[in-house]
Amino acid sequence: MVMKQIPESLLETKIDITPPVNERGEKEVIDAILDAIYQAKNPLVFVDALVHRHNAKKEASKLVDILAFPTYAANMGKIIIDETHPSYVGIYNGRVSTPGLYEAVETSDLALVLGSIPSDTNSGVFTRTFHDAKCIQINPHSVVFLKIGGEKWLDVHMKPLLTRLVSTITKSSLPKVPKPRLGSRPAAKDIDAKHITQSYIWDRIAAFLRPGDVLLADTGTAAFGLPDATFPKDVIFITQTYYGSIGYCTPAALGSDVALSELHTEQGKSRGRTILVTGDGSLQLTIQEVGTMIARGFQPIIIVINNAGYTIERVIHGARQPYNDIVAYDYSHMLSLFGASKSEATTNFHRATKRGGVHAVTETSSFHPMSEFGF
What we know:
Keywords: Decarboxylase, Lyase, Magnesium, Metal-binding, Thiamine pyrophosphate. By secondary structure, the chain is α/β, with parallel strands linked by helices. It folds into two domains: 23-173, TPP-binding domain (Rossmann fold), CATH 3.40.50.1220; 198-374, Rossmann fold. The chain has helices at 23-39, 50-53, 57-67, 101-106, 158-168, 198-208, 221-225, 249-267, 280-286, 289-296, 311-316, 334-337, 342-347, 355-362, and strands at 43-47, 71-73, 88-91, 110-114, 134-138, 142-146, 152-154, 214-217, 236-239, 274-279, 301-306, 349-352, 370-374. The strands form two sheets. It has a seven-stranded mixed β-sheet with strand order 3-2-1-4-5-6-7, covered by helices on one side. A hairpin with a 5-residue loop joins strand 6 (142-146) and strand 7 (152-154). Helix 6 (198-208) runs parallel beside helix 14 (355-362). It is globular, with a radius of gyration of 23 Å. The termini are far apart. The mean pLDDT is 91.
């Protein structure tokens, strides 16, 4: 079958992914949602990754604008709502959230939950529960009222529902909810360290980002460290902590760079950067795709966090067990191994083991595609 010829014209057929509109169901749901919102004293909005996956980011952002309720995101839902938005509070990850944030959420009496992925690693090991709040879950294809009566509407789709909800809200009837004041994040105990630390590296990478960038964080320290850093507007953040598939982000970075290039060529969109942050363990699973990047002329920025093994697994189980060790790679040879010329490989590789080295690499205007940061 792989050798069978098919007409190229089929590629010109557009795929319609517009979800169907259920007018009757939407009206019932919206009446119920508005009744709950107008009666609430301290409501909040919570945004997760399925909002982005089902193309409802614009609609969710408009809802946040008009409601002006304190707004939170899951790890996987980070940056769907602009983190400089006046209503945005932070990442709510249950008991392991930023100090003060869990307590602020627990005072809510109504949680409007959009596109939730309730997996263990995306919910603070199931401690993200909105304990005392009534909870309205707006899912991609259904709406569920929890702790309100258990009503459930099927075949009501998130994207058109949010559009209709935004146009139906009476702003004068909305409760005015002050944004919680959490205070500043406590200073890290190793703030004066010269070597690279977890408390340092994620904020440093966030400061390197520019609007339009796509940042991919592989499962591991990157996926759990980067969400606590603040990103600039119009960055796309991709992480995958649902299945915990280490190695996912390297081929995903290739796909991202292909998409950015095609959008730039075909639609004239400005070309952001693809930035992959992966651990040394995760990279070894799909490292061959670096060869595809080089062969096809793509140049995503690859940041390898080299912490000598499966660090997340050491934390979970087996801190000193040999099964969490890996074979050490000499990454300075990686680009030439996969086909880059010797001069390209030398120019485009940087290694840093101290904070000063990281600053030198990320602050230069001619930052090159691959860096290794050793802890």
